[in-house]
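Chapter summary example: a protein plus flavin mononucleotide.
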Amino acid sequence: MKIGTLVLDNNLVMAPLSGISNLPFRLLARGMGCALVCSEMVSAHGLIQRSEKTEKMLCSDPKEKPLSIQIFGADPDIMAEAARIVESKGASILDINFGCSVKKVIKTGAGAALMKTPKKVEALIKAVRKSITIPLTVKMRSGWDRSGDQALRIAEIADACGVDAVIVHPRVATQGFGGTADWSIIEKIKTAISVPVIGNGDIKGAADAILMQNTTGCDGIMIGRGAIGNPWLFSQILSCFRDGEIPSVSLDQRFEMMKQYVDSTIRCQGEKRGCHMMRSRLGWFVKGLPGSNKFRESIKRIASEDETIHLIKSYLNDLQKVSVQNPTATP
Ligand SMILES: Cc1cc2nc3c(=O)[nH]c(=O)nc-3n(C[C@H](O)[C@H](O)[C@H](O)COP(=O)(O)O)c2cc1C
């Protein structure tokens, strides 16, 4: 897939996930073959005020490139200035958020609230487009509500204003993440605009990815929740596209990945904060395994890297004993 001048290795993209898709998380996704990773949404206001916390969100590493940084805001001048900052920090792509339905964001007129006001969208995209030279994308929902073809209208505006790709998560804002994504809207937009369309929503396995591509004709596929604790989803989809096979994930691979995640989180956040983050996040990787509740309980108070690695290894040991004693058990 090509986004503007950027040629990607394949058409799989890791979705922006606020509070989740930080550098360590993105490195896992890239390691499993996804061609493009996205930052969590970053406040344009925070960026231009040089807020330390906001600037930290731009923290990156050459190994994860290409990286798309997503910004949100409603003021064209502030968004244009924030986009310039993002470009100067080395982002490969700038993405604008037209999809966030969190109250705190929409009450400022940003995120999905913009889908109600096409004129504002136009002014905003034009201002940002003028301010940067890197490829520009927009990520939208299917609309604010079900009153009409809001996504189609916004996609046509975006195309006319010079964006390089449009990402569509076809749920309306009032839906949050409930119900199902209406992929027919991705197809509708794909047939109406000239730039690549990246479809998003409800990809949980390789079969979903193939179905989305075949039924909508989308150029790219973006995956969010399905890859949380399961970055192998990317390699499985790629393998399925290539030769129809879906390789399984061994226990050793799973636990190696957890150790890698601990290591890069601690290097990125420091030991104290890193361990704190791991208290809930390691649980993502053991969903459905025997004894996972006990493991989750055991990591609730981890405070050092050594302790964390020890608990991971001892849980793996326990699981290996189970499978030796009962080889038919599926850990
Ligand atoms: C916890 C969480 C955080 C999210 N944060 C963002 C965000 O920062 N920016 C954004 O555009 N979408 C965000 N989304 C939406 C996802 O990028 C994606 O559009 C949505 O989850 C549907 O895709 P999926 O079914 O593959 O998860 C978030 C979703 C979740 C569940």
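Key point: Residues 15-18, 20, 40-41, 70, 97, 99-100, 139, 169, 177, 200-203, 223-226 surround flavin mononucleotide (CB under 6 Å).
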